[in-house]
Write a structure and sequence with these properties.
single chain; 133 residues; alpha+beta; Aminopeptidase; 2 helices; 6 strands; 17% helix; 33% strand
Length: 133
């Protein structure tokens, strides 16, 4: 998990003295990686995520980054927020898993649930870059 990395900067947004949202920033080789965006449901639809993203982009710019990377679930409010800030989709990233109910054939592919891989994963994640101008 990126947020657990010692070089990460963790951000916490507050509203009226209450924690409202989080975000993390990791900078490596002039590239900013934004992750761990979350907003407490009570504070959603108030611009918390975008404020945290803007804050981390400002930190990245000040640190000399000219490229930022972020991920979001396909078609999510997070993706829309990111696109409003100038991020653009560069490729979809899909997760695949084999379920127990799938018909077993003579194959060397392991039963992923048996080896500890979750049977259901996100349908897709899009990775979006942000270039500073």
């Amino acid at each position: 998990m990126m947020a657990a990395h010692e070089a990460s900067i963790l951000a916490l947004a507050w509203v009226d003295g209450q924690p409202a949202g989080t975000g993390a920033l990791k900078i490596e080789d002039g590239i900013a990686w934004l992750s761990a965006d979350s907003t407490i449901p009570l504070f959603r639809r108030r611009g918390i995520q975008q404020a945290l993203q803007r804050f981390r982009l400002q930190l990245a710019w000040a640190a000399g980054c000219r490229l930022a990377i972020i991920e979001a679930a396909v078609g999510s409010a997070s993706q829309r927020n990111m696109e409003r800030l100038g991020f653009r989709v560069i490729y979809p990233h899909l997760h695949f898993a084999k379920s127990k109910s799938a018909r077993r054939r003579r194959s060397r592919v392991p039963d992923l649930e048996r080896v500890g891989w979750p049977a259901s994963r996100d349908a897709g994640v899009e990775v979006c870059p942000h270039t500073f101008s």
